[in-house]
Each structure stands twice: as C-alpha cells, then as structure tokens.
Amino acid sequence: MRIILRFIFAGLIIFFTITGLNRLKQEPAQQKNEESMMTTKEHKELEKTAAKGNAQAQFELGLYEYNQKNYGLALNWFQKAADQNHLDAMSNLSLMYNQGIGTDVNLTTSINWAKKAAELNHDQAQLQLGVAYLTGRGLEQNAQQAFELFNKSAAQNNKDAQNNLAVMYLNGIGTQQDTTKAFEYYLKAAQQGHIEAQNNVAILYSEGIGVEKNVQESVNWFTISAQNGNFQAQNNLGMIYSTGAGVDKNYQIAINCFLASAKQGYPQAQYNLGLMIENGHGVEANAQQALFWYQQAAKNNFEPAKQALSQLQQKTTTTTTETN
Q1: How many angstroms separate the CA atoms of 46 and 23, rounded?
Q2: Which of 31, 39, 128, 203 is the most buried (most CB within 10 A)?
Q3: CATH number, domain with residue 269
Q4: From the CA atom positions of the chain, what is the Rg in Å?
C-alpha cells in the first residue's frame, strides 16, 4: 500500500486566526446561560439588575443574547458592561467587532477594547491582541510583541496562548527556536485539553523533537487527541495502526480512524481510506467505495489521490472491457 506516513502538525501558523478569535469568554458559573436554560422569570430578574447598572448582570445578559443569536442585543449589553471595566465584556466586544458579529467589522474598535483589557491583565484579551500583532490584522505586524503577549496570557494558564507559544518556539517566530520549550508549552496546553496541542505532543514524542523519543507516549497522545475529535490525530493514529509502527498492526482500528478523519473532510485520510478499501485491509475490497474516497480527496486537491483515482479508474475500465 501507499499509505502516507508523514505526520502532520496541527495548529501551525494558520491556527492563529482560529485560536482566540472564534469564541467568546464564558465563565463556568454561567453555563446555564450558555445552554439557553434561563427561565423567563430569571431573565426578567437579570434584566432588572442589569438596568440598575450591575456590570456582571449586563455581561450575563450579553452571553444569553449571544447564545440566542440575538447579536445586536448581545453587543449592546457587552458594551454597557465594558464601559464599567468588565474585562470579559471588553474581550467579547473586541471579538465581535473583529468578526463583524452584530455589527460591522471595525478593527480599530476591536483593537482598542483588546488593548484595554490586555493592559488590565486579561488573558483572553492578551491572546487576541497577540494574534492581531502576529497576523498584522488591525495592527502593524510584530512577532516579538505577539510573543510577549502570548507569554503573559500563557502564564495565566490560557491553553490557546500556550499552544501559540509552542508554535513560535518550534518555528523560531518572534523568538529564538527552542524545541524543548516548544514541547513544554504544547504539553501544558495538551494537559488542559487543547486537542491540536495533544496531536503535536504526540508527534514530538514520535520524532524525538524537544523530548526523548517515546513511541508509547506518542500513541497515547494521538489516541487522546483522536478521541477528542482532532482529524489530524485520527489520521495519524490510522497510519500507526495500518503500519504497526509502535503498536500491533490492526487494520480494523486503522480504517475506523481514517473513516472518522475522512468524514471531517481531511483529504489525506480520505486518500488513506481509499487505499485501505481498494486493498481490502480491514474491510472487504470494494473498487467503487475506494473510487468514492479517492474522488473526495482529489476534490480537495490532494495529488496522490488524483493519481490513485486515475489508476483505479483505468484498472476498473480494463477489467470491465475484458469481462465483456
């Protein structure tokens, strides 16, 4: 088989636009708001408290309206709370203006709110501001400044900032390359449940980068990340079980891993799944199903899949012609 054996790091540069810019700050005590479980009576009481100028109530109403997809109302309540120096509200306002949620995109306003909260040592705002400096979105690009902000945020156990620091140490962005530090920060983020960091910890253990090579630890972290739904870890785990690299070879587990990743649209896994099906590993050989997965990967512009698709189409055409 031609299974692709190259592990893929999750969470490299492109991940910065995702980490810290896709979710609002929500505190554990406010989970019932997040799940839209607030009763009408509770909502009215919260509105009364918010109307009296209580910043926490205004913030909680903002969360409630956000989760109800009433983004204009959410923005209004966050604004009221932020005007009273509610740090989480400031951070949320920054995110909404950054993404144009409930308002037009306004990067200047977004940066201003992030700076205010970051100066008051708000970890999420420090993360957001670091992302802005790193990407040059709304600010002049400055990797060193991004690195400093991620450091401040990571010191407060912000797992996204820890992951971003690891990326910068691994690649020497904004700081001197240090693979040992990269591993340390990936591990910190992974231990807090950051699924991309979990995948990357597994790769570093597998390759012996920044840490002593440990195949068993690598398999353990790939498994954790895959079980948490990371499509790259699912594909990586499939490669391990399909080749028996550090584990007993198990085609059934491999095909299940490839399938889970392929269903998430990952072209490398779609290709690997097609190979397994074409060769009858872990499942009965089926040319039509193999063609389907090669086609999916080819649509995603994965070159090995285009070649495999062409070869299998030619093979099936030849077989059909000979049969007739």
Answers
A1: 23
A2: 128
A3: 1.25.40
A4: 24
**What's the token pair of residue 4?**
């692709």
The parent domain of residue 319 ranges over 251-324
**Is residue 37, in this structure, part of any structural domain at all?**
no
Asked if the structure places residue 118 within a domain, the reply is no
Is the predicted pLDDT of residue 11 greater than 80, yes or no?
no
Helices of type H across 228-302: 231-243, 251-262, 267-279, 287-299
* Each residue's pLDDT tens digit, 127-141: 999 999 999 999 999
**Phi, psi (degrees; rounded to nearest 5) at 167:** -60, -45
CA distance linking residue 172 with residue 143, whole number of Å: 10
Residue 26 near residue 34 (C-beta atoms within 8 A): yes
The three-state secondary structure class of 38 is: coil
Q: Whole-angstrom Cα distance, residue 141 to residue 174?
A: 11
Assess if residue 275 is contained within a domain.
yes
By C-alpha distance, which of 253, 240, 312 is closest to 282?
253
Among 27-31, 86-90, 170-174, 255-259, which stretch is predicted with the lowest mean pLDDT? 27-31
Residues 6+ apart with CB under 8 A from 2: 275, 304, 308
Cβ pair 67, 36 in contact under 8 A: yes
The closest alpha carbon to 118, from 70, 165, 78, 151, belongs to: 151
The span from the CA of 196 to the CA of 223, in Å, is 12
Q: How far is CA 194 from CA 19, 157, 162, 273, in A?
A: 10, 12, 9, 26
For residues 99 and 74, is the Cβ–Cβ distance under 8 A?
A: no
Residue 294 φ then ψ, to 5°? -60, -40
Report yes or no on 262 lying in a domain. Answer: yes
Q: How far apart are CA 249 and CA 165, in angstroms?
A: 35
Q: How many residues does the chain have?
A: 324
| pLDDT for the residue 323 | 56
Distance of alpha carbon 113 from alpha carbon 83, whole angstroms: 10
What DSSP letter does each residue of 99-158 carry, written as one string?
HTSSS---HHHHHHHHHHHHHTT-HHHHHHHHHHHHHTSSS---HHHHHHHHHHHHTTT-
Q: Which amino acid is at 138?
A: G
